[in-house]
Specification:
Number of domains: 2
Number of helices: 2
Radius of gyration: 34 Å
Low-confidence stretches: 1-38, 214-222, 249-259
Distance between the termini: 104 Å
Helix content: under 10%
Order of helices and strands: HEEEEEEEEEEEEEEEEEHEEEEEEE
Length: 377
């Protein structure tokens, strides 16, 4: 009897051992959890998109995470909320361009990283404040190309190019930049060239003088009518554009080849710095007419060269010198940190007359310059 009990006990022990191996022998079955891995935090920014007075089109830059050979991707979070939304996923670079942004606005951004497919490491949320005003990129070698569209009796398209061809030297007592520009009119086969001289200072861009060759090919286009606007007569719209007097080279009034440079004495403040909403200044008190400029607002524009955040500047004319700003002469310029991106000129009630002075028709003329390419430092 005792032998049988010992045998049963041994069988029970062996059974228990088997159960311990297979199922833990009487204990609850538990799966083995991996050790928790602490995500690698993203290193701090190495760019300039922190603090105040940040560009309206900044480049967010942060330090790389991981080791050589690791697979590393980043998610970028950006916006005006303190918990910004995700705007980019799984990018391999450590930079991300944002903008155009609005002036005087606060923005927040953060970066999340995944290394070798592991858990996400998060950065803190960084913040910055954009600048409220801008200056223009004036440096030798900078250049801008525009497509010009003129709509009157018939539409014409031409191309306009500006280059800061030279820095240094002086115009009178002031250091000067030379702006060289050319307009190729495809409809008439003409090329206009001119050179404008500016002094660039902390307080603005000052017009010093200008000269040019007028129409290079041919010297004058023969027409059967002339244009009359606010008491002035012109052989073509191009001549009227010269008289308008540009503030940033486009449409500059050129002297003929036989006339020397036209000097602005005293220099005229073409652009007041900083360019910011609400700013207003006098450009001309006369000769040929009074002109003032005002920064009306800021908007995001899309032109062939891309999307830009631009300040809208209205130029006021008193072309008939009657003491009131003309409501039939409207010019709007749009300036971004990259330079002028658009210009719109509206001339209402332009008269076309025959050689005897008889009125043929009254038309409205709309002239638009749009940036198609640029190179700036």
């Amino acid at each position: 009897m005792k032998k049988t009990m010992r045998l049963n006990s041994m069988i029970a022990v062996l059974a228990c051992l088997v159960l311990m191996v297979v199922a833990g022998c009487g204990e609850e079955n538990k799966s083995v959890e991996p050790e928790p891995v602490t995500p690698v935090p993203v290193q701090g920014p190495s760019g300039v998109a922190l603090g105040n007075n940040v560009s309206l089109a900044p480049l967010l830059t942060w330090r790389a995470s991981g080791q050589p050979g690791d697979s590393v991707v980043y998610d970028v979070y950006f916006g005006t909320q303190t918990s910004p939304p995700r705007v980019a996923t799984a990018i391999a670079d450590t930079t991300f361009a944002v903008g155009p942004l609005f002036p005087g606005a606060r923005y927040y951004w953060a970066v999340h990283v995944r290394i070798n497919g592991g858990p996400t490491g998060k950065s803190q949320v960084w913040e910055f404040l954009t600048k409220t005003g801008i200056t223009l990129p004036i440096a030798a070698g900078n250049r801008w190309e525009y497509r010009r569209f003129i709509e009157a009796q018939e539409a014409t398209v031409s191309f306009h190019e500006i280059e800061v061809a030279q820095a240094g030297g002086t115009w009178g007592p002031l250091p000067a930049f030379v702006f060289e520009e050319h307009t190729a009119d495809l409809s008439s086969g003409t090329i206009d060239s001119s050179w404008t001289y500016y002094h660039h200072a902390d307080s603005g861009l000052f017009l010093l003088g200008y000269e040019g060759s007028g129409n290079a090919t041919p010297t004058r286009r023969v027409v059967e009518y002339d244009y009359r606007f606010n008491g002035y007569e012109f052989d073509r719209i191009e001549d009227l554009l010269r008289l308008i007097r540009a503030d940033f080279a486009v449409g500059v009034r050129s002297a003929t080849a036989s006339v020397g440079p036209i000097i602005e004495d005293p220099p005229k403040r073409a652009i007041e710095y900083p360019i910011e909403v609400g700013s207003r200044w006098t450009f001309r008190k006369g000769d040929p007419w009074p002109m003032e400029k005002e920064v009306l607002g800021y908007q995001v524009l899309t032109v062939p060269a891309g999307k830009f955040g631009a300040y809208e500047i209205r130029t006021y004319y008193d072309a008939d010198n009657d003491g009131a700003w003309d409501d039939n002469f409207i010019r709007l310029d749009y300036f971004a940190e990259q330079g002028m991106v658009k210009r719109s000129i509206t001339l209402l009630d332009l008269e076309l007359r025959d050689p005897l002075g008889n009125l043929i028709v009254i038309v409205d003329v709309y002239i638009t310059y749009e940036l198609v390419a640029y190179e700036v430092e």
